[in-house]
Give the backbone structure.
Amino acid sequence: MILRHAFIPLDNERLSHLCGATDEHLRIIEDALGVKLSRRNESFRIEGPKREAERAAALLQRLYERASRPIPAEALQLALAEATSDNPPATGEGTPPGDEVVLHTRRADLQGRTPNQMQYLRHILSHDITFGLGPAGTGKTFLAVACAVDALERSQVQRIILTRPAVEAGERLGFLPGDLTQKVDPYLRPLYDALYDLMGFDRVTKAFERATLEIAPLAFMRGRTLNHAFVILDEAQNTTPEQMKMFLTRIGFGSKCVVTGDTSQIDLPKGMTSGLVDAERVLQRVRGIAMTRFTAADVVRHPLVARIVQAYEAADARGER
């Protein structure tokens, strides 16, 4: 199928931002959507299967409308992830009025980008304990941290506690240099990155100094009662059932808990049951606990990540792994 698309009124600056340097953005769109793009001035020719060609035309129009300034690589990849999703957009015309979740963070544009992400946010806001299960790149951890920052900004909680098990993907803590804190720090780095993005470096540093923000290995949670806190357990697939039970029973009054993990990336020794898998089975009907299950359609990283996840899922379904 061949579609023709022209931008009216023409804005050469927007057109330049849309195409990118030496039409780099167009080449990325071609590769992601499986179409052939060619243009002459403001007129585009889109060649490919009907569905992909229509997606490409709609994507070009959306990008053109937001191209008053250069389009960052991240924004382009997120737009591609939305365009290649089989789900309708989670916001805008496809979202009922008043159904949007607005979070108060440094990222003013932060919102769920797929129906599952929107459901995840609603679950977190309406339940004391929420599980987010699914592949990498679906926003499980980032959105949970965003909800925690939002709750702290609104004074709904007094502190944020982020934790994860220090289980290595084929390596050992003892091989790393430094004291215990320095050994554990690399495992907590994704949580730091999310905080810096949502709060800024200076605010994160001050929050640590005031003890309103704490990051610790899961082992440090034993014996504590966590009142008036927003607690996030990341990489929960690497907990044991005993650790998961210990963690969930730390939750105190006025607290909210989010547990995230990917059961396809378990680094526990062979034969050992994952605490996340066990909790999903045991707690699925417990009142007050919500579970959101993400799929490859919810991946909002580079479009190639979604294709990688789908390839592994297909191999698993065929029994090849």
